[in-house]
Amino acid sequence: MSLPAGIYFMSGNDAVAEGAIIAGCRFFAGYPITPSSEIAERLSRRLPEVGGIFIQGEDEIASIMAIIGASWGGLKAMTATSGPGFSLMQESIGFAAMTETPVVIVNVQRAGPSTGMPTYVGQGDVMQAKWGSHGPYEIIAISPSSVQECFDFTIRAFNLAEKYRVPVIVLMDERLSHLYEKVRVPPQDEIIIINRKKPKSKEEFLPFMPDDDLIPPMPPVGEGYFFHVTGLTHDEKGYPKMDPNVQEKLIRRLCDKIRKHADEIIDIEMHMMDDAKIAIVAFGSVVRSAMRTIKIARKNGAKVGLINLKTIWPFPEKQIYELASNGVEHFVVAEVNYGQVFLEVQRAVRGEAEVHGVFKMGGALPSPLEIWSTINKVM
Amino acid sequence: MALQHPLSVIILRKRVSEEELKYRLAQKLGVKVRRGIVHIIKDRCKGCGACVEFCPSKVLKLSDDFNSRGYHYPVVVEEPPTKVCIACGFCMLICPEFAIYSVPMEDEEE
Amino acid sequence: MPVKYVESHIWDKYLRTDRLPHIWCPGCGIGSVLSAFLQAVEKANIDPKKLVVVSGIGCTGRVAGYIKVDSFHTTHGRPIPFAMGLKLARPDLHVVVFSGDGDLVTIGGNHLIHAARRNVDILVICVNNFNYGMTGGQVGATTPEGAYTTTTPYGNPERPFNLPYLLAAAGAVYVARWTSLHVRRLAWSITEAFQKKGFRFIEVLSPCPTAYGRRNRMPDALEMLKFFRDNCEIRDFADPKEVDIVPGKKIILGKFVDIAEEKKTFEEKIYELINKYRKV
Q1: Which listed site, A33, A218, A369, B5, has its alpha carbon 20 to 30 Å from A321?
Q2: Is C49 in Cβ contact with A62 (below 8 Å)?
Q3: pLDDT digit string, tens, across residues C221-238
Q4: What residues 31-60 of chain C have any CB closer than 8 A to a CB of chain B?
């Protein structure tokens, strides 16, 4: 059974696992990698309890392909990994995006690149989440900043994946994965679960013909729909078509499917932003340092606020631009990499504000005083 | 041309090919030999020649004519009555193009 | 002389006829293997609604697009883990992985042996044309030593896999090798395999006149088929160790492994586990 409603004390990884079960995940295939292994370990015990399937793949590529196969088999499927495994999965993520397969991929980021610091925090996979696979495509990436959010966002990830028929990446980081905090599990009737659209009839059914919302209903396998799914550029029938016009139509739709719905997908959180002249932009574990920073700033009379991104992709550029053209003069982007969200904020402000970075390469979060000292320099 | 079988002189009192000998013997013994009708989808053929080469009754040969794609498709060989399709189905199995199949005469509609 | 010129084939009901003619070269054996497969589907009474074909990238991988069933044309080397996930989610379906030697054995080799080890209940048909045909004829893990390919212009310095040996060692419950000439045996073998459960592997040697044959003195598919006719020997239950393909040695065909004892499949074990520990 899923966790009954109540208050629990658990780690970020635990919260992801339990959130997945409540969201209806009944298939997990993963490969051990620090710092995400606990998700696999917990699900290996919990999934059979709820009638779900757990397997450990021989590598990350087998894991991601297995969850794509299971998703086509009708199950909500998830995998969990970290940087090196995420890199291995990129081709298959592109395949899931191209074939519009709903899957959830949890990337518990660690300091990189390469083997890096397996047991230390990093946030260097932000750009990779968007651009990791080849070709033009769009995915959704969300970033929890507390263990409660790990729980809530995992449920959200499944809902987004099912609704938009797209791979959704939960961008966590190591610090959060092993942090223990209070989690409130709401009663079942308070939790919204979204399932994939099913076709209305078999008559003249075209598996990749979208509805008005740009999302095609997903045919169930084994019921005589006789559909074809391919990673090659395909027409509405699903048949490969090597034609630039078909490519134009298909790829635009796959990207517009997310871009045009950005407003519904994006969810950001502001703190003390009403009169802020300086905005800290943070996501994941850094939000906690940033929260302390704005308290220090306000005590010192500085008009500083915090934007907790929550949604990384599609990037909330409209919201950032609005703030930039309505009073915010400086954006201070604090992240554990050498400037990734920083570049997006720079792009989004379109010159209406100045953008500064507080960068830590990995292994440690920017401390509140480090962020405060940058803000001081800015003021 | 088929080789003449030495035993035919003894059995039938004349020189005939091996196939003719077998056919005549079968007839004499009352053995029913299955006959088939070759069905060819001319325009699907890519002229690989496998059906011609491996038909056990050597019933086929490549046409002189071309199909719409420029390939020589199989036609039946007009030879003495013993060269007949026996509906073994090998051409159907080996054809990579789904361009040929055989149907036993009794099963043929119309 | 009884002959009829018609417009459709009796097996068109299993094919996506709106996509014919297929892309394979004249003389390519893949079409023959597909014919044998359809014959087996009929003989084994498989309901096309419950049949799923998963393929990878390459000439053989295109098979999935032509069979009128729920079909999946996945990424290079990865049809097997996809099929494993699908089969676990829907154990009631017949899942067939139909792909080429480059896809399944060279890039996909890791998944192949693990699936065999786990005894995933899928039927794998591996068409072996000794090279990477689709991309023009590069060397692969099944290319005979000394053969010429576009990336071994001086002759292949590598030794190929002995596939039946590899799969028998990995634990497959049914291992057979045929050629695209021995279509009857192949159809019968696939029919037999459909009626078993567990990891079943059938290797089918095929001519590739355009890429492989042309560079190795067999430019005509018919030449290679005749070569198969004259140089293959059917030896059921031969020792898989002895069936390697070496120039000068007879190619051994047949059914090498057919484990009669029912071994639990991966899906069975997973579902048993679930049924034992579930609390809902």
Answers
A1: A369
A2: no
A3: 999 999 999 999 999 999
A4: 31-32, 34-36, 39
